[in-house]
Write a structure and sequence with these properties.
It contains 11 helices and 12 strands. Helix 1 runs antiparallel to helix 2 and helix 5 packs across helix 10 (307-315). A 7-stranded mixed sheet has the order 1-7-8-12-11-10-9, sandwiched between helices. Strands 2-6-3 form a 3-stranded antiparallel sheet. Strands 4-5 form a two-stranded antiparallel sheet. The longest helix has 28 residues, at 45-72. It is elongated. With 334 residues, the protein is an alpha+beta fold. Bound molecules: phenylalanine. Phenylalanine is lined by residues 172, 174, 257, 260, 278-281, 302-304. Residues 172, 174, 257, 260, 278-281, 302-304 line the site of phenylalanine. Mg(2+) binds at residue 261. It is an enzyme of class 6 (ligase). Residues 115-310 form the Aminoacyl-transfer RNA synthetases class-II family profile domain. Keywords: Aminoacyl-tRNA synthetase, ATP-binding, Cytoplasm, Ligase, Magnesium, Metal-binding, Nucleotide-binding, Protein biosynthesis.
């Protein structure tokens, strides 16, 4: 049996023939080795031990012969190359992650505003009422401070006081205006300020196609002597033309914000429709006073635009929730 098996394995021309020979000799059901093994039952008890040992040696030898033949057929035999695999095909490119469309938008806006001399400032997302409200001329009883319209932080039902009152997730990036003006009072007194701040803001809105409880704003602040509304209009128009194209028109609608006077809402006409992108205005004297600037000496403008809305207009995105669904089929398009 051993030499029959050896000859069959050696003579196998390809992997299929070798496999057929393996089944003939080693097959678990009808292999020839199995037949011999069955004969062990009829052997005299006295000889059983020796016969069993001999049988094991033969089995081992047949296995070795099979393995040798298999490795001689090359590459360890057919079992290592999957059926249907064509090794001559080019490899598959591994898919790398890439930058989220909102981050791409932030980079793009930063670049456009940078060309107009605006540098990036940052502020924390967890804020105190002074920076989110008080310094922005939003008094205690103002509806904008309503707990139903803000994410106040609480631990086990108790408000978190961070030294300056109850902490909240900032509802607007205008907080950064305050932080920058406070900081520049010390680091660069009397110097003009020209900053943008891009970051997350939070409002408890139910998500729909145009609302999400977290979104991004681009805040702008320009403080100097003799800054005018005309400067504000120009900066926003140049920005809009750069980001959305030359066919964009800009419209200012009279509005009200506690921290600007006069205040406007900013609409862009694009592809025939007016769309509101945010608010703007001339920095209110009360705000200057809250951070120690003399409103008789300096003036300034501020604006806050919705980053998602800009990104959606530019790319034709119709549902803000797509940006935060994490769906790769959507994200891979950017
Ligand atoms: N903070 C305002 C908002 O979130 C936008 C704004 C910014 C308005 C700066 C005027 C000046 O709606």
């Amino acid at each position: 049996l051993q030499s029959d098996a050896q000859n069959a394995f050696d003579g196998a021309a390809d992997a299929d023939a070798l496999e057929a020979a393996r089944v003939t000799f080693l097959g678990a059901k009808n292999g020839q080795f199995k037949d011999v093994q069955k004969m062990l039952g009829g052997i005299e008890p006295a000889d059983k031990r020796a016969a069993g040992m001999r049988l094991n040696d033969v089995k081992q030898a047949i296995h070795t012969a099979f393995e040798t033949a298999q490795s001689q057929l090359g590459g360890g035999g057919s079992s290592q190359i999957e059926p249907g695999f064509d090794p001559s095909l080019p490899g598959r490119r591994p898919r790398l992650g890439h930058i989220h469309p909102i981050t791409q938008t932030i980079d793009h806006l930063t670049e456009i505003m940078g060309r107009m001399g605006f540098e990036v400032a940052e502020g924390p997302e967890v804020e105190d009422p002074f920076h989110n409200f008080v310094a922005l001329n939003i008094p205690e009883d103002h509806p904008a401070r309503d707990p139903l319209d803000n994410f106040y932080l609480a631990t086990a039902g108790t408000a978190v006081d961070i030294g300056e009152g109850d902490a909240l997730l900032r509802s607007q990036t205008s907080t950064v205006q305050i932080r920058v003006m406070q900081e520049r009072q010390n680091s660069a007194p009397g110097q003009p300020i020209r900053i943008i701040s891009l970051g997350r803001v939070y409002r408890p809105d139910a998500p729909d196609a145009t609302h999400f409880p977290m979104f991004h704003q681009m805040e702008g602040l320009f403080v100097d002597e003799h800054v005018t509304m005309a400067n504000l209009k120009t900066v926003l128009r140049v920005f809009a033309n750069n980001y959305l194209g030359d066919d964009v028109e800009i419209r200012f609608r009279p509005s009200f914000f506690p921290f600007t006077e006069p205040s406007v809402e900013v609409d862009f006409l694009w592809n025939g429709t007016w769309i509101e992108f945010g608010g703007a205005g001339m920095v209110d004297p009360n705000v200057f006073e809250a951070v120690g600037y003399d409103p008789e000496k300096v003036s300034g403008f501020a604006f806050g635009l919705g980053v998602e809305r800009l990104c959606m207009r530019r790319h034709g995105i119709t549902d803000i929730r797509d940006l935060y669904s994490g769906d790769l089929r959507f994200l891979q398009q950017f």
